[in-house]
Amino acid sequence: MPIPRAEALRQSELWKLALDETPPRGAAGERMARGVGASLEFQDRRAYAPGDDVRHVDWRALARTDQLMVRQWRAEVLPRVEILVDASRSMAIDAAKEQLVCDLTALLAHAALESGALPVIVRVAARPRFVPLDELEHGGLEFDAREPFDEALRAAGGLLRHGAIRILLSDFLFPHDAADLVRPLGSSAGALALVQVLARSEDAPEHGGAYRLTDCETDEVQDLVLDANTVTRYRERLRRLCNALEIEARRARGRFVPLVADRDLAWLCRERLAREGVLAPR
Asked: 8, 89, 247, 279 - which has most CB atoms within 10 Å?
């Protein structure tokens, strides 16, 4: 299993997370959110409802309007950044692709820390789990999941928190509808980014020759001749997939960032992640 390279940690010193323009609800911290809580900054009033704390009743408003109102206070929060990593076997089909996913996970986690947020790494598989940052840096990530990704993503839902900043790392090369994947993630997120990581051969396959392909998840074997027509059809399907993911990300007020693992990490941070608003210079 690859572990994050030193370059990933060096890059994390140059960038901060740029997805938290509007901090969501989270643990107590130093930022201000749109949600209400118990800080000292008054935000608004609303009608009293059974179960409200009577200490928040606005007695002056009652005297003026004869209506029972409660005060609301703006909450101080530490934003939570959830970095969801697709643990499918296809993520390790290429050494450069596997390494880039590992590097990006560490880089984004450290960028979140530098932004004053709490990074939470989630390994998305049939049995999803949290991956501590020190475990990632010393033990790496394992990509051995075989189950359909939509099922694994649903299983990970119990580990996610409403209002969190959410980043999903995947190749998205599976036969699932983009809307069915993206909308549940975006509807409960404070901010969303879909980061697609592809091997060079997945992004731009070359035609010529016969190949025996093995499905990473099912071990199904298929003989295929990569002639010009086959490659053209593949590229068109990939284009439609990326367009659908971008449309759904925009509908969720998020970002879709496709990356190819033939570029160095510094270039990807500067020309792709920063340009798309996922990272910003420190």
From this structure: 279
